[in-house]
Amino acid sequence: MPGGAEMLSFSHLLVGVTNSSAVELQPYNATHSIVSAIEAFSRLTLSPRTWPPVQIITEPRIYLLKRKLTSI
């Protein structure tokens, strides 16, 4: 379960998101920080007036999270 107690047993997590707003990351805001974002395919655009006429658009889809240190 996202943000659950079992997730705190890991120091790092890879979390996939379905859209660029990254709503799926909200349960981790209090316990983890984003270390890196990995870009992945989002869509193709066609523009016959540019070269190359096909462009690949990417967006962050996978995030590497690190557990925040908690004070004891």
Topology:
Elements: E1 12-16, E2 32-46, E3 54-67
Antiparallel strand pairs: 1-3, 2-3
Structural overview:
With 72 residues, the protein is mostly beta strands. It has one domain. The protein has no helices and three strands. It has strands at 12-16, 32-46, 54-67. Strands 1-3-2 form a three-stranded antiparallel β-sheet, with no helix packed on it. A hairpin with a 7-residue loop joins strand 2 and strand 3 (54-67). It is elongated and about 55 Å long. The model has no long low-confidence stretch (mean pLDDT 86).
Task: Please tell me the total number of domains.
Answer: 1
Distance between the termini: 25 Å
Rg (C-alpha, Å): 17 Å
Number of helices: 0
Low-confidence stretches: none
Structural class, from secondary structure content?
mainly beta
The amount of beta strand, in percent, is over 45%
How would you characterize the largest beta sheet?
3 strands, antiparallel
Produce a short descriptive summary.
By secondary structure, the chain is an all-beta fold. It contains no helices and three strands.
